[in-house]
Amino acid sequence: MIWRFDPYELDEEQRELRLLGREVMVEPLVFDLLADLVRNRDRVVTKDELFDRVWAGAIVSESSLQRAVSLARSALRAGNLTDAIKTFSRRGYRFTASVTEISSHPKRRLQLMTWTRFVGRVTNSSGITGKRRDPNSSKPTAPAA
Questions:
Q1: Model confidence, pTM
Q2: Closest CA to 64 of 27, 35, 94, 37
């Protein structure tokens, strides 16, 4: 899943945070924290939930969580989204920026959607061409002149 919160994209499949198409380097735990907050943006995510999901139940101090949140905010600073992670004292955190879900990886979606037909040939976005087949025959037809 790819989540877009302008000017950022969070690509869970590729495990990348991108700012205007360029990767922003973040620690794996910071990425997981940010992804969890974005996925659950409609509510306050409790500290205990974050400890369970991001740290997989490992015993860590609250300062570890505060450091990860601080690093996530720092990663969002270049896009002026430092206030996108709101703190709810003694409860947890919530991601407050407007988010759009993109259901699949954009390169794959583009490749699947851009098959076009012209002059008797089929071409996809990768430039691969082939002869069009007559639906009533197993042999390819000659390209149209």
A1: 0.70
A2: 27
pLDDT band at 9 (very low <50, low <70, confident <90, very high): very high
3-state secondary structure of 106: helix
pLDDT in tens, 52-63: 999 997 888 999
Cα end-to-end span (Å), the chain: 43
- Are residues 14 and 57 located together in one domain of the fold? yes
Q: How many residues does the chain have?
A: 145
CA atoms of 80 and 86, how far apart (whole Å) = 14
Structural domain harbouring 18: 2-102
- Buried/exposed 31-60: b ≥16 CB within 10 Å, e otherwise: bbbbbbbbbbbeeebebeebbebbbeeeee
CA distance 15 to 37: 15
Q: Which two tokens stand for residue 116?
A: 């076009």
Residue 122 identity: V
Q: Is 107 inside a domain boundary?
A: no
